[in-house]
Design goal:
With 526 residues, this protein is of the alpha/beta class. It is built from 20 helices and 17 strands. 46% of the residues lie in helices and 15% in strands.
Length: 526
C-alpha cells in the first residue's frame, strides 16, 4: 500500500554550460532521496530541467553563432546524457522553452496581475547578466580597474537606465514572509541558511522586476505585448509545470503532488527559492513547499570548483575512474550535504577502498565464495536459533536509524549506519571462522548458521545501499537469486531479518569494487 506522495526538485539548471560536479552533486542528492522514498512506499515526483531563457543565454548563443533555441537544443543531450550516466531517476525534465512552461508562466503571472500584485514602472540601477540579478549601487564592488562589479560573480555590471518593467510588489511581502518563517521554522534548511534569509528579509525588501522589454528571448506576458518574463519569474514556475500545473489533462497529478516536500538548491540561490518563490506563491494563494534545502559548495583546496578557476572536473571523468555507483556513494557519504565539503582524489580513493572495496565488496566476495565452497552455491537453511545473532540485532533497528537520517537529509549518517552493519558482518565472519567450522562434520549446523546470517546481512545491506548505489545493490541481489533491490517499494518489511530463501542459488561473480591504486590514476582535482 502506498504511503502517499513525495515530490522533490533540483534547480532548473542554466544551459550556458554542461553539468559539472556541483550540478551533479545536487542532482545525485535529490535522486538518492527520491529513490529512498520510492523504496519506502511513496509515489514520487522528481523534477529537474533546463533554464533556457534570459539575456545570458541569448548572449551565449550569439557568441556561438547560433540562435538561442538552437543553442538550447544542442545542450539538452549534454544534460540528459550526464543524468542518464549517473542513473538519475527523474519523472519530468522541464525545458523552459516548452509550450507547457509558457502556459504555466502566463497563467501564474496573469493571476497575480489580476489580483493587483503587479504594476508597471521603470528601473534605474545596475544589472548583472551572468547572475541575472539587479543590484543597488551600494551592494556592488569595484575591481582593480575601478569598474563596478557584481558582488557574487565579480563580473562588470550594466547600467539599466529607464527600462520599462513590470514589478511584483515584493516589498509588501516582508511581514507575511517573516510570519511564514516563524510558523514554518523548518522551511529553510539547514538552520544556517534560515538565519541568513531571515536577516536578509528583516533588512527590507524591494519590489522585483518580473519582465524585460529590451529583448524577446523569454515567455511573452499576455497582459502586455513586448514584455517577456524575467528569467527567475520564468524558471521558478518550472516546478509546478513538472507536475502538471496549467495542464487540464494532468490536473489530478498536480493535485496529488503539490506542494513539493523538497527543493534541493545550492546555497548561492537560496534567496530566490526562500524569499521570491514563497512570496510569489503566498501572493497567488498557492500552498508553499515544505522545505528548501540549500546545500554547501564542493571545494578543492578551499576554493569553490568552477571552470573559470581551472579546477572544474566533469562527472564523466570521475565515473571513468570509480564507476557510477562509487561516484554517487562518495559524494553522498563523505560530503555532508548541508555544508561546504573539501574533495580530493586522495580522499575519493581512500573512501572507495575503505568503504567499498575492503568492507562492502569484500563481505560480498568472501561470503558468496564460501557459500559456493561449503554449500554447493546454495543458501543453506538456517538452523533453529540462528536468528539470535549480533547481525540480526543490529539489523533490527537499521530501518529506524536510516529513516531518521534520511528525514534530516543526512546522507552521511544514513550511509554510516549501513556501513556499520557491513563492518560488523565482516567481523562476525572473521570471529566465527567458517573455514575452521567446515573441517568438523559435527559443526555443519553452526557453519550453516554463520553463512546464512552473513548472506542475510548482505541482502539487507544491499537494500539500504540501493538509493546510493542502485546498480551494485541490484547485482548483489541478483547473485543471491533475488529480484532488483532498487525496485522494492516495501523497504521496512523487506529489510526484516530472515527473508532470504533457503536453496536460492548464490553466484560468486567478480569483485564489486576492485581496489584502486592512487598512483595509477591520471586525474587531478586541483
Amino acid at each position: 500500500m502506498s504511503k502517499g506522495t513525495f515530490s522533490i526538485t533540483t534547480p532548473i539548471y542554466y544551459v550556458n554550460a554542461a553539468p559539472h560536479l556541483g550540478t551533479a552533486y545536487t542532482t545525485v542528492g535529490a535522486d538518492t532521496l527520491a529513490r529512498y522514498k520510492r523504496m519506502d512506499g511513496y509515489d514520487v515526483a522528481f523534477v529537474t530541467g533546463m533554464d533556457e531563457h534570459g539575456q545570458k543565454v541569448a548572449d551565449t548563443a550569439a557568441k556561438k553563432g547560433m540562435s538561442p533555441q538552437a543553442w538550447c537544443d544542442s545542450m539538452e543531450p549534454a544534460f540528459r546524457g550526464v543524468w542518464d550516466l549517473l542513473d538519475i531517476s527523474y519523472t519530468d525534465f522541464v525545458r523552459t522553452t516548452q509550450a507547457s512552461q509558457a502556459r504555466s508562466v502566463q497563467k501564474f503571472w496573469s493571476e497575480l496581475h489580476d489580483k493587483g500584485w503587479l504594476y508597471k514602472g521603470s528601473y534605474e540601477g545596475w544589472y548583472c547578466v551572468h547572475e541575472e540579478t539587479y543590484y543597488a549601487e551600494g551592494d556592488l564592488l569595484k575591481n582593480d580597474e575601478g569598474e563596478l562589479v557584481c558582488p557574487d560573480c565579480k563580473r562588470p555590471v550594466q547600467r539599466a537606465a529607464g527600462e520599462e518593467n513590470w514589478f511584483f510588489k515584493l516589498s509588501e511581502m516582508q511581514e507575511p514572509l517573516l510570519e511564514f518563517y516563524e510558523e514554518h521554522p523548518d522551511f529553510i534548511q539547514p538552520v544556517t541558511r534560515r538565519n541568513e534569509i531571515v536577516n536578509f528579509v528583516e533588512g527590507g525588501l524591494k519590489d522585483l522586476s518580473i519582465s524585460r522589454s529590451t529583448f524577446d528571448w523569454g515567455v511573452p506576458l499576455p497582459f502586455d505585448e513586448g514584455h517577456v518574463a524575467y528569467v527567475w519569474a520564468d524558471a521558478l514556475l518550472a516546478y509546478p509545470t513538472g507536475i502538471g500545473y496549467a495542464d487540464p489533462q494532468r490536473q489530478a497529478e498536480f493535485d496529488a503532488h503539490w506542494p513539493y516536500q523538497y527543493h534541493f538548491v545550492g546555497k548561492d540561490i537560496t534567496r530566490f527559492h526562500c524569499v521570491i518563490w514563497p512570496a510569489m506563491l503566498l501572493a497567488c494563494g498557492m500552498p508553499t513547499p515544505d522545505h528548501v534545502f540549500g546545500h554547501g559548495f564542493l571545494l578543492t583546496k578551499g576554493e569553490k570548483m568552477s571552470k573559470s578557476k581551472g579546477n572544474g572536473v566533469m562527472p564523466q571523468d570521475l565515473v571513468k575512474v570509480f564507476g557510477v555507483d562509487a561516484y554517487r556513494y562518495y559524494f553522498m557519504s563523505d560530503v555532508q550535504f548541508g555544508h561546504d565539503g573539501n574533495i580530493s582524489m586522495e580522499r575519493m580513493v581512500q573512501v572507495y577502498n575503505a568503504d567499498l572495496a575492503n568492507t562492502w565488496g569484500n563481505l560480498v566476495s568472501r561470503v558468496y565464495n564460501m557459500t559456493g565452497r561449503y554449500f554447493e552455491g546454495r543458501v543453506p537453511a538456517a538452523p533453529a536459533g540462528a536468528e539470535e545473532n549480533p547481525l540480526a540485532d543490529l539489523a533490527s533497528g537499521l530501518y529506524e536509524r536510516y529513516d531518521a537520517c534520511m528525514d534530516k537529509v543526512d546522507f552521511t549518517g544514513a550511509a554510516a549506519a549501513v556501513q556499520e552493519l557491513a563492518g560488523v558482518a565482516n567481523h562476525y565472519v572473521e570471529d566465527s571462522a567458517p573455514w575452521n567450522l567446515a573441517k568438523d562434520p559435527a559443526k555443519v549446523e553452526e557453519l550453516a548458521a554463520v553463512i546464512y546470517n552473513a548472506l542475510e546481512a548482505c541482502r539487507i545491506i544491499a537494500l539500504f545501499l540501493a538509493p546510493f548505489m542502485p546498480r551494485t545493490s541490484d547485482e548483489a541481489w541478483r547473485r543471491l537469486g533475488l529480484g532488483k533491490a532498487s525496485e522494492r517499494t516495501d523497504l521496512q518489511d523487506a529489510s526484516r531479518w530472515g527473508q532470504l530463501p533457503a536453496g536460492n542459488p548464490v553466484e560468486k561473480g567478480e569483485p564489486l569494487f576492485p581496489r584502486l591504486d592512487l598512483d595509477a590514476i591520471d586525474l587531478n582535482l586541483e
